[in-house]
Amino acid sequence: MSDDWDSVTVIRKRAQNPTVVKSQSAINAALRSGAQIITEKKAGGTYDAAKMGKVENEGEDFKVAKVNLSVSKAIQQGRQAKNMTQKDLATKINEKQTIVNEYESGKAVNPNQQILGKMERALGVKLRGANIGSPLGAPGGK
User: Fold this and answer.
1) Which positions ≥6 away from 97 have C-beta within 8 Å?
2) For residues 37 and 46, is the Cβ–Cβ distance under 8 A?
3) Is DNA-binding among the key words of this record (predicted)?
């Protein structure tokens, strides 16, 4: 059996039912029984660092959307104005405290608009669109 990581040994007793083996004892048993043994190279087992670097450099610049600093400050100020802890706010909007912490610290990746909406209603502060940090209007009024 080859000690090469890029090769596969296939034992065929019948044409339609090949078996892949990984041990030398299985290969020896197949040889004794007269089975056909084929060793094939695996496809795509190499890593070309130069080619991958080129692909990496040609690719687009992907930037992950995070919570804006003004939004995180507005959440923190609104929460403190209502004398709430992060845990209190999380309980009120039915989310985990870590979620509130991520939004407040600006670390939340791809901010969820539903969570921002819940926070807006709980804090009474606008967190989306223009005038971030201003008080919300009366419910139903625009």
Assistant:
1) 86, 87, 90
2) no
3) yes
Q: Is the dihedral of CA 55, 59, 65, 68 positive or negative?
A: positive
The CATH number of 69-128 is which of 3.40.50.970, 1.10.260.40, 1.20.190.50, 1.10.569.10? 1.10.260.40
Angstrom distance (rounded) from CA 76 to CA 104: 6
Break the chain down into helix, strand, coil percent, rounded to 5: 45, 15, 45
pTM exceeding the 0.90 threshold for the entire prediction: no
Q: Which two tokens stand for residue 114?
A: 């539903």
Distance CA 40, CA 69 (A): 56
Burial group, residue 97, by CB count within 10 angstroms (0-12, 13-18, 19+): middle
Answer whether 10's CB lies under 8 Å from 20's CB.
yes
Q: Report residue 85: phi and psi, to 5°.
A: -90, 170
Q: Which amino acid is at 90?
A: A
User: What one-character DSSP code corresponds to residue 46?
Assistant: -
- Distance between CA 134 and CA 120 in Å, rounded? 10
